## 1
Amino acid sequence: MSARKVKVGLIGLGNIGKTHIRNIKSMEQIELVGVCDQVKEKADQFAAECGTTAYYEPADLFDRSGLEAVIIAVPHYSHPDLAIEAFARGLHVLCEKPLAVHVNEARRTIDAYNKAKESHPELVFGMMFQERTLPFYKRIKEFVDSGELGQLTRATWINTAWFRSQAYYDSGDWRATWAGEGGGILTNQCPHNLDFYQWVFGVPSKISGHAHIGKYHHIEVEDEVTAYFEHENGMIGHFMVTTAESPGVNRLEIVGENGRLVFENNKLRLFRNKVSMLKHLQETTQGFANVESEESELEVDTEVPTGHKVVTEKFIHRVATGEGELIAEGPEGIRSVTIANGIMLSSFTERPVEVPFDSDQYESILKQLISTSKFHKTASKEIEADITQSFSK
Ligand SMILES: NC(=O)c1ccc[n+]([C@@H]2O[C@H](COP(=O)([O-])OP(=O)(O)OC[C@H]3O[C@@H](n4cnc5c(N)ncnc54)[C@H](O)[C@@H]3O)[C@@H](O)[C@H]2O)c1
C-alpha cells in the first residue's frame, strides 16, 4: 500500500462519522490530525478516543490541523460548501454521498475542483460510493460491460429493502425535511442505487417520476418512488423504491437481446438465449415461439474486501502516491444527483423530463419547498441504531 502516512481530518462525527473513525483507526496509512463536529462533546470525545485534536469549526480544522485531506461526513447540504473550502486550500476531499442535494450545487463543487486543479493538478476528489465495491454489484457491472447480453432492452430495479421507522426519521432534526435534508429516499438512501444504475447503464435521456411525499411516515419528503427511464440506446428502465416495505425486496433484472440477468437474494441467475431475441423475432415464421434459453448461476467471489474502508484506502493511496484508481471520482457524483432531481422534477411537474433538464427550475422548486415548509418535527430522540444494518452487504 501507500509509502507514507497521509494527514487526514474528519468533519462530522455522527452515524457515518463513527464508521469512518473505526476504519481510520485500522489504517496505518492515515495520521488523523483532527476531528471536527459542531457538537463540542462529540468532537472532544472522539479526539480523546483517537489521540487527536478536537475542532468545532471546519475552518479551524482546515487552517490549524496541518491536514492534507479531509473526509466530509456531515449532512448533505454542507457537502458542497465544505468541499469548495477544502479545494480552495489545495486539500484533497473524500465526500460522503450525495455530492450535493441538487444539480446546480453539484456543478458548483465540480467547477471549484477543476479550478483548484489548475494550481494543484495532483488534487484528489473522491466520492463515498462504497456499494460499487460489493461483489455482486461488481460482477453485474463486469457482465454488462462484457457486452454478452447484446443490445440492452430493459433494466428493472425493485429496491424496497430500505425500511426506515418513524423513530429513524425523528432521530435527527435535519432528517426528512426540505430545509434540512433536501429530499427523502432519493437523496438519503438511494444515491448508492442511482449511482450504481448510472455506473452500469448511464444517465437516462428521459425521466418520468412519481414520488409520494410522506405517504407512510410523518415526513415532508418522498418515501415511495416509482420512475420510468428511457435511454439513448433504446433501453428502458424502472426504478421502484420505498422506505415503507418490510420484508423488502432487492431485485434487479437486466434484459438484453441475448438473455436476462437477475440479481436477487445474493444470487445472479443468467438466462442465456441460444439466438438473439431481436433476430429471432424478425426471422421466425412461428407466431408464439419463444427463444430457447439456458439457465445458469454466475460465480461471484464474495471473499473480497468491500465497503467504506476500500473506498478510503484507494483514496489515501492516490493521495500518497499520485497513482491508482478511485472507486468513484468526485465529479461522477453529479450523475446520481441528476437522476434524483430529474425524478422529482418530473413528479412535481407531472411531466416527463428530458436530460439535461432545467436545473434552475428544480432549484427554485426546492427553494419554494424550503420556504413554505410548515412541517415541525418533534424534538430529536436517541434511537437504537446499528448503522451497519443500513449498508447493503
Ligand atoms: N456512505 C454511506 O453508506 C452513508 C451512510 C450514512 C450516512 N451517509 C451520509 O453521511 C452524511 C452524514 O450522515 P449521518 O447519518 O452520519 O448524520 P448524523 O446527523 O448522524 O451526523 C452528522 C454529524 O455532523 C455534525 N455536523 C453537522 N454540520 C456540521 C458542520 N458544519 N461542521 C461540523 N460538524 C457538523 C453533526 O453535529 C453530527 O454529529 C449524510 O450526507 C449521509 O448521506 C453515508
Note: The chain has a mean pLDDT of 95.
## 2
Amino acid sequence: MTSSDPAVQGAWAYEGLHVRALFEQWVDPVLEIAAVKSGDAVLDVACGTGVLAREAYRRVGSGGAVAGLDIGPGMLEVANSIEPGVRWVEGDAGDLPFEDDEFDAVVSQFGMMFFPDRVGAIREMLRCVKPGGPVVVAVWEALERSAAYPISVDVLQRMAGQGAADALRAPFVLGDTAELESLFREAGASEVSLETRIGTARFPSVRTMVEADLLGWLPVMGVNLDQALIDEILTEAEEALSQYVTPNGKMVFDAPAHIVTARA
Ligand SMILES: C[S@@+](CC[C@H](N)C(=O)[O-])C[C@H]1O[C@@H](n2cnc3c(N)ncnc32)[C@H](O)[C@@H]1O
C-alpha cells in the first residue's frame, strides 16, 4: 500500500479483513446461479475492491468482458491495482452509465442494503441485462439470525452509541424475504426467485473480527472512534463473543445470506 488517502487505506483494510473472512465465499454461488460462462459480458454493481468481478473476469476469459461499478473511488483504486483487466467504473447503482441490454449477466453482492433507491437500482440492473438474462443479488439475512453480529451491535450500542451501532446494523436491513422479493417485483422483474444459504464467517480471532468492524467497516460508514474507546470495546468484545471462539483461537460462526435471481 502506498496511498496516504484514508479511503484507499480503508479499502485495503476492507480487502484484507472482510473480503477474506466474509465475502469471498459468495463469489462462486453468485456466479454459478448467474451461469456466467466463457465469452460473457458481466456487470458487478457495488463491486467494492472487486472480489466478485475478479472471479467473473477469470471465468469469462479473453472473449468476454467485465465491468465493476462502485460509488467509492478508494474501493476502485484498490480493485484496479489488484486486477487492471476489469473495466472499473465510478458511479451510482441508481444511474448506471451503461447501455440497455449491454450485459449477459448483472451481479451484485452485499451492496444493495446501502442504495438509497433500491427499486431504482434494480430497475437499472434489469435495463442493462440482455432480455432473459439474469440479475443476481446477494444480501445478508436479518441481524437477529446472524449469529455473532447481534452481540457486536449490542456492545457498540452500549459503549459507542447509536451511530456506531447503526453502522453495524446497516448491512442486515434486507433480511426480510417478502420485502426483498417485493422490491424486485416493484422494479418490474417478471421472474423472481430467492434462496437462503448459510455461509461461514471465519476470522483469525475475536480481536480481528472486531477490528475489522471498528477499523475496516465503521470508517466506510463515516464513523471513526478514538483509539482509547477501540481498546475498551476490544476488551469487552473478547468476553461477549467468547462462545464463537474455537479451540485454536479462531472465530467461526454462521453467516446466512439471501441470493435473489430476477429477470426482466
Ligand atoms: C459491503 S461492500 C460489498 C463490496 C463487494 N461487492 C464485495 O463483495 O466485497 C458494499 C459496497 O457498496 C458500495 N456502494 C454503496 N452505495 C452504493 C451506490 N449507491 N452505488 C454503487 N455502489 C455503492 C460501497 O462503496 C461498497 O463498496
Note: The beta strands are 41-45, 65-70, 87-90, 105-109, 135-140, 191-203, 251-263.
